[in-house]
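One-letter codes give the sequence; the fold follows as C-alpha cells. An example follows:
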Amino acid sequence: MWVWQLVLAVGIGIGSAVIPVVNAEAYVLGVGATHALDPVVAAIGVGVGQTLGKVAMFLAVRYRPGYAARKTKEPKPANLETRWGRFVQWNRDVSKRLLAAMSDARWGIPVTLLSSFVGIPPLYAVALIGGASRMRVVVFSLSVLAGRVGRFVLLALGVGLF
C-alpha cells in the first residue's frame, strides 16, 4: 500500500521542483492533516522527488549546449543612470557572490542545506547557479536530499500532532 503513496509523492515532488506553481508543502501539510496517507512516506517521497527535479535542473545548466562559449563573453554594461540598470547590476553582483559561494568547498554545502531546508535563498535559484558552479553533483544531491526530506518530515509530523 505504501508503494503507490511513495510513487505519487515522488511525482508531486518532481512536478513541484520544476514547476513553481505546484506546491509540495501544501501536499505534505494536507496529507499530515487528513491522515489519508502515511505522512512520513509522503514527506520522504516528496523530498526524493524534489531532489530529482533540482538535480535535473542542476545538470541542465551544467551541460547545456554552448555553455563554454558563453562563459568567456562579458555581459553588456548596465546603465547605472536608470533604476533598471542599477537593478541589473545588483542582480549580477548577487549572482556572482552566490556563484562564488557555491563553488567554494566551505560554503557550497551550507548554502545548499540552508536553501533546501529553510528556503532562503530560493532553492530554484540555488539549483540553477549551482549548475554553473564547480560544486560536485553528488554533494549537491545529498545536500538537497537531506534538507528537503528534513523539511517535509517536520512539516508532516508537525501538522499531524493536531
